[in-house]
Specification:
The protein has about 200 residues and is of the alpha+beta class. It contains three helices and ten strands, in the order H-E-E-E-E-E-H-E-E-E-E-H-E. A hairpin with a 2-residue loop joins strand 6 (about 125-135) and strand 7.
Length: about 200
């Protein structure tokens, strides 16, 4: 009887020990998988993005290696394959405005009103501001706005504009795509926006 009890106890303890070892191995595998994915993700990003660096203009920005780029210094356009998404980066001097000492809040208000004015004047145009909020661009205070514009449900575009004013210059990044394609590229575009650095 005692022998059976000891044997039963050994079997139970052995089973518990094996379960703990198996669980520990699974946790280690999950951690290893997370680390591998993180390494693969950072490698993927560095392999799949190129960088435009303009030391004379004081900035750099990354973009997907397979996107087309048109570089005119103060205006750089990036287009996805088949032109499904477009990103435009521009630099404007505040001297082009009547008030060179305009604040970020004043500029943001003017820019949003300008967008509303331009879009609402287009015949039969659908227009709606979806979001307007503060945004840090290269660590500098800025603003972003997301809006819809188009002539009908099939040709409605969604746009994201981000801007900041630094040392008398307006830095602006604009992303635009059809509503149906917008979410397909937004992560890539946010990576591009996050990659923007003032040198």
């Amino acid at each position: 009887m005692m022998t059976r009890y000891l044997l039963f106890t050994i079997i139970i303890l052995s089973s518990l020990f094996l379960a703990l070892v198996d669980n520990n191995n699974n946790n280690n595998n999950n951690n290893n998988n997370r680390i591998s994915k993180a390494i693969a993700s950072s490698t993927l990003e560095s392999k799949h993005f190129l960088t435009v660096e303009k030391p004379m203009l004081g900035f750099k920005i990354s973009y997907p290696y397979n996107w087309n780029i048109t570089d005119n210094d103060f205006l750089i356009s990036f287009s996805s394959p088949q032109n499904m998404a477009n990103v435009t980066f521009s630099i404007t001097n505040l001297t082009s405005y009547s008030k060179t000492n305009i604040t970020l809040e004043q500029y943001s208000s003017n820019e949003i009103n300008n967008i509303k004015s331009v879009e609402s004047k287009k015949a039969g145009n659908l227009f709606e501001i979806l979001e307007s909020k503060p945004h840090l661009l290269s660590g500098q205070p800025g603003h972003d706005v997301v809006f819809l514009n188009g002539t009908n449900a099939y040709t409605t575009y969604k746009a994201l504009l981000v801007w900041s004013i630094v040392d008398g210059k307006i830095y602006q990044i604009r992303y635009s795509a059809k509503v149906s394609e917008y979410s397909n590229y937004i992560e890539t575009v946010l990576y591009m926006i996050d990659s923007f650095r003032l040198l």
